[in-house]
Amino acid sequence: MEDVNRNSVNVLTLGALGKNVSDDTLFIQQAVTKAANYMVQSNQVGGTVYYTGNGTVRFPTGIYGISSTITVPYGVNLDMTNAIFVAIPSNKTLDGFNMTGNTFRNNIIGGTFVGFKTALTFSTNNRNTSRLLLDGISVHNCNIGIDMTSFSSSRSTNLTIKNFQSISTNQFLKTYCDMTHLTDGWIEHTGYNGASIYNQGFLKADNIIFVPSPTQAGARPRWIDNYNVNDIQPGERGVSISHCRFGGESGSCPVIFNYATADLEIIRGYSASIINIENSIIFSSGSSNGESAAIVLFAIPNRISIKNCSGISNLTNGMITCDSTFNSRNVPNSRLISIFLDSTNKGATTFPLMDDDLHRFLMTDDTPFNAFRQTFKDGKFYKRYRAVSTDNITAKVTFKLVSPTSLANGMEQRDHGFSFFASISSSISGNFGYKSQSLYLVTLTGGHDGTSIKKRLSYTLLASHGGGVSFGTHATISSVHWGSDYTGNKDADVSSTEENVTITFNGGSNSNITILPLFGIDNYS
Length: 525
Description:
- The chain is mainly β.
- It has helices at residues 25-35, 370-378; strands at 8-10, 19-23, 56-58, 62-66, 70-71, 77-87, 95-99, 105-114, 118-122, 130-135, 138-140, 144-147, 157-167, 171-175, 179-189, 195-199, 202-212, 222-226, 238-242, 245-246, 256-258, 274-278, 281-282, 295-297, 303-307, 320-322, 338-341, 362-363, 383-386, 388-389, 394-402, 417-425, 437-448, 453-465, 477-482, 491-493, 498-506, 512-519.
- A hairpin with a 4-residue loop joins β30 (388-389) and β31.
């Protein structure tokens, strides 16, 4: 049988059967080696490698058995339309096609892969026009579908995967490319302890249905793991999702586990990490392990945006939550970190929007002044403290303030300072009368006394409404002080990032103070 296509090799002409009755490995390897010798394009035009190319291996309709890994030479294209490749044995111990170090400007059309450890493996050493197109790929019952291994030597790679499906496969894709585009696909999660997609670059996903299976015992399934580039470099990474459906069936799971950190060194050029989800259906509830959230943070990126999405309900941990290993309170306030959720994400009131401490980064669709809005409108920041009476006329409350450390020199004071309103309500004496209420501004500022940085507490009365029987009693602060020192206002050394602040005021055990933060007091308990 002769192939009428010039510069291509038909595997059947070399002896392959494609009838699932024999091992076709030898003939397939011979075909791809032969195709590497065909020069489809010439680098004599323009004198650069941008014009080089090799031949195509064509696989007519059939079922091909593979018993050892096929090594694909540099620049060879594979036309696998309607071809099925079955591992021998098909128990996920054998890698299928390997193009490690050889990926350049390759196209793989079609191909269904069954029972492989890794169906397709790629990497490149080319810094020029590395581009890879996978069109019509299907993976069934594999451990990994497509592994781009590491592209650390050449991240200038564009990967496009379209018209694909992944069935009963633990991880469909591991990508390290600069740009990866997934479009028009169907991915099933097996419920294993991992993600269907591992991303260490920039990933765009659109028009994909993500279908979950019940969660396996002890597993934490999720759809996408998003990492820093090489785990250390800032920028060059992120996820952008549109027109996708996540879950809905039993065993739904979070959309993203994020491990990528924010780049806060604007002097370096500011290469932001982002997560963007829009125009999608997000079902993240129903996970058998109780992890119900759209995004789980192991680190916070520069930008999180979720807008114009639906299907959001019963997220017990909210739209965004932090993993137990990640303390978001250690992340400094920065204008280079922001979270945007439009009003469509606030339709359900049965679950929190996000972890309390994350609200300080929240931007909204109706105002950019997130701190003020979250303090006074959404009520996520304010905290009410019940007084502990010390005698019949004074009461006190104590809360723990978590503030950043700073170097002991006069130039490093920018992180020292907070301010909050203290709304004080005194108790009523006897069976009648009126509560008195006062509003104070409490501030902390940083300074240097010549030997070390100090922190100073102060308070100012803004307004007071008298109470009691004759409106003659006022709720007044008598002192704001550090820890167990009740002598009144005083300076404190920068000796610890966690210190108790106590407010003493007149009132009985039914008195209380509501803390409404203005600046720098995002972390308190």
